[in-house]
Amino acid sequence: MRPRAREVQVSNVPLIHEDEHILVFSKPDGLLAVPGRGLDKQDCLSTRAQARWPDALVVHRLDMATSGLVVMARGIEAQRALSLAFEERRVHKRYTAVVAGELINPQPDNGWNTIDLPLMADWPNRPMQKVSLEAGKPSTTRWRIASQPSAPGTTRLELEPVTGRTHQLRVHLQALGHPMVGDALYAAPDQHAMASRLLLHAHWLSLPHPVHGQTMEFHSPCPF
Fold first, then answer.
1. Which of 37, 126, 152, 199 could crosslink 181 through cysteines, CB 3.0-4.6 Å?
2. Is 63 labeled as catalytic in the residue annotation?
3. Annotated catalytic residue within 29, 40, 43, 63
4. Same domain for 85 and 98?
């Protein structure tokens, strides 16, 4: 029997921060950020949050397969302020990912590298995205080797999206020849089978508070 939206409970989602204007959660993998189509896809982070905080409003999303930090606004004014901060790139996010293969950082002292590849929807294969030099939207990702070790045949990375395109991190790393381990969409079958989930986690978030403007930082330990 499919669940009804009113039966959804606020549970199993760690609350990182709460005040009168924002909420910050650490979304688990496998949970939608917003409702999908159909009554069976109403259980999601925003529905759970709104059951407890009726004024909670969506500002940004994470893919269902991705875990980590998500901020929600409390009230329309906070939503407008945070949406503007995202638009003006005053919100900064960093992710931990494990990719297939051994990736070498060409920058000295493990500095940041940049991937600049325009992306667009791969319409015959939706919801997949693809690199398109002709028709894609400008898309930029920074990456470097993470300090924590990874399993043989893989590389643990720290990623920082400069733009926020759909599946941007996943497609950019695939384009480098190092798709993310556990990725059902962009990894080869053997790379997908290396993990029971997509190894991508939003571990750090920095943003200006929507009311007083002070920069706030949030952290979520990587679960893999």
1. 199
2. yes
3. 63
4. no
